[in-house]
């Protein structure tokens, strides 16, 4: 399929799994990559891992930003704004899930880790770097969500469903781990909720830009269940918490029932979303890589869940997230 050569692409979560695979493919297709990795060491390792995919025209550069730390994000974005180079595709892909952990992990700034890394960090990046994206001639935003955001999907039905309620957990000066304000922490629900936030964030941004007459393509997407072999990657926390259970789950889901997608294929879907002309349409779209039968997925446009389609909720989430970001930066930056 046709894609435009040499886009300048900024990606979070490009150091592992789906994001690393997409980055390799994007390099091979002639794009310039800027990778936001959690540490300098991760930047160096990732750039090295990508060097085999380099072509004469391509470069990969790393910038160390831990998405657990809003101050690091703010400072990193300020540096990028000073350099003032356009971003053609912004890929917000980094994510964690702490399934198996019973008590919430809080970041330095007192925010539940899953929510901070998966959603809040990305909203801050988006708020700060939007002017660079808008400097591009053909800007595009891609956000990695998950079908588990939808309580009616296969994965979304297992365990407590995603729901943000009235966002009581985001009231000012609260330190509640669950966004709907429930007192008992559930790491699996916290992950599902964060993936719902990804969709709502994309939806709200697209609406805002439309109202201002500045529409761009905003693509939220779900890769399907991807369980790579090996000890790192997306299921690392679950594996540490319950090695036998995770080994059994992986064997049944990946090898026996063939419910999973490969990292290579999920990476190539992300790469296509980032550069192919067929995704050039402005406005919000949600794409999902759905299992149609064992060993076969179909990647197509899909409807997000009811909450994922709720524009008032999207606006409320954006506003409360922005207020929380502003409050935490005020408290932690001496401004
Ligand atoms: N795997 C699945 O089944 C699945 C299904 C649906 C959706 N997704 C979504 O797909 C996306 C990519 O997941 P994956 O499967 O490729 O997982 P992965 O291999 O664990 O990759 C996650 C990426 O996020 C980065 N990251 C995590 N915490 C960070 C932090 N504090 N600061 C900076 N970067 C951080 C990781 O960096 P390090 O390399 O340094 O750890 C890594 O690059 C996620 O948004 C996930 O929610 C995955």
Produce a short descriptive summary:
This protein is of the alpha/beta class. It is built from 9 helices and 8 strands.
SSE blueprint and pairings:
Layout lengths: L7 E5 L4 H12 L3 E6 L2 H12 L8 E5 L5 H14 L5 E4 L20 H22 L5 E5 L42 H25 L5 E6 L13 H6 L1 H14 L6 H13 L7 E11 L2 E6 L9 H22 L3
Parallel strand pairs: 1-2, 1-4, 2-3, 4-5, 5-6, 6-7
Antiparallel strand pairs: 7-8
Helix pairs in contact: 1-8, 3-4, 4-5, 5-9
This protein binds NADP nicotinamide-adenine-dinucleotide phosphate.
CATH architecture: 3-Layer(aba) Sandwich
Supply the number of helical segments.
9
| Annotated CATH topology | Rossmann fold
Radius of gyration: 19 Å
State the strand order across the main sheet.
Answer: 3-2-1-4-5-6-7-8
Q: Segments where pLDDT lies below 50 for 5+ residues?
A: none
What is the rounded distance between the termini? Answer: 49 Å
What level of helicity do the residues show?
40-55%
Please state the average pLDDT score: 94
Q: What is the number of E strands?
A: 8
The number of domains: 1
Main pleated-sheet profile: 8 strands, mixed
The first-level CATH class is given as Alpha Beta
Q: Which ions and ligands are bound to the chains? A: NADP nicotinamide-adenine-dinucleotide phosphate
Provide the structure class.
alpha/beta
Beta-strand share of residues:
5-15%
Shape: globular
